[in-house]
Amino acid sequence: MPFEDPYYVSPKNKKGVAALLIISLIIVFTPRFLSYFNAPLHLVITRTQVELLQKRQAKYAYKYKSHYKRKTYKTAPKRFDPNNYLEADWSALGLSLKQVAVVMNFTKRGLYSNDDLKKIFVIPPALYELIKDSTFYPTKENKPYEVKLEKQIALKSLLLNTAVSTDLEQIKGIGPFYAKMILKYRDALGGFVDKNQLLEVYKMTPEVVAIIENNCIIDPSFCRKININTVTALELQAHPYLDWSQANSIVKMREQKKFYRNVNEILESHLIDENTFLKLLPYLSL
Length: 286
Prior knowledge:
Blueprint: H1 11-37, H2 47-65, H3 87-93, H4 97-109, H5 114-118, H6 125-131, H7 149-152, E1 158-159, H8 165-169, H9 176-189, H10 206-215, E2 216-217, E3 226-227, H11 233-237, H12 244-257, H13 274-280, E4 284-285
Parallel strand pairs: 1-2, 3-4
């Protein structure tokens, strides 16, 4: 039997392999060759289509951003003495009627610096930053707004949510320490809504609470509200009833929902129990 070369390829097979190679090259390079000579495709959009897209974009942007709209405040038209500002002047800057009532209560006692102005807790930081460079004050030596506290304060009618330290110190049994602690906690809360909250004040006793209850009125309408659709986690954390994890969970859940439609929705966070929610409720808004 003659020896057969295992690497031998017949002429017929050689022609078949060459034909297959040529066909493969044609298939690979034909689209590239044709694309080289064809003009690039241009997408044509008419002016009408552009205007329609812009209207739709503006519609949806307003739909979602309107829920996060913050209240705008105005700068003072000229330099002013806060002690001489009327209710209408404060309203023109952007304050509500309740906020104006609190501010007027403070100005009756006299303001002598921006530090005094900043202590008025109902003036939002955004408004304070707008007006702080436009203010001027009388000197304390002149005291054109001096009043006698003993005559001004009527016992059993002092509004605890608008009172200043000197008001509280006039009440027998409340010295400078308790006055300072009460106001510090009130500002952290945003205002008292219930007398039992006074027991949360540092070193407070039931006896002192009884004195305050007999001489002060707690009006919840003067409390500062927290807009849960705009507040940041850091701002929420500053509230005595929330820690960082709870504050952060409220904000993260809001981001998932786009916005809250009802304050009760924060109960969906497993970190917010019913007791915490009920204590927070008087301070929440949309």
